[in-house]
Amino acid sequence: MSKGNRISQLRDTGIKVRVDNKHHKPIEDPGPGKHFWILTGLWRVANPTSNNFMLDAENLVTVDGPGCYKCEGLYTDELAAQSCKGSMFPL
């Protein structure tokens, strides 16, 4: 586990999921002009030092998206039909 990643497991409704580097793999660019659609979720953390986080409905604050990671546009049929003008790794 890297020094910056203190999460060792995620738990949802009692089911434990081990978190290791496979969940933090590098993001691959789908290619020039292609959108990279994502959802983002935000959960409340009661005790950040516990190293045991509950990613369940009771602690879910919001889920946003889908949106494009590259151009930061919210999904619409019109945007999906357009070539993405964003970049995975802005300069």
| General form | elongated
Low-confidence stretches: 1-7
Straight-line distance between termini: 28 Å
Largest sheet: 3 strands, mixed
Percentage of residues in DSSP E strands: 25-35%
* SS content category: mainly beta
Q: For the CA atoms, what is the radius of gyration?
A: 16 Å
Order of helices and strands: EEEEEH
What helical percentage do the residues reach? under 10%
Count the E strands.
5
Please state the average pLDDT score. 79
Q: List the strand order in the largest sheet.
A: 2-1-4
Q: How many helices in DSSP terms?
A: 1
Provide the fold topology:
Layout: E1 9-12, E2 15-18, E3 37-43, E4 53-54, E5 60-68, H1 77-81
Parallel strand pairs: 1-4
Antiparallel strand pairs: 1-2, 3-5
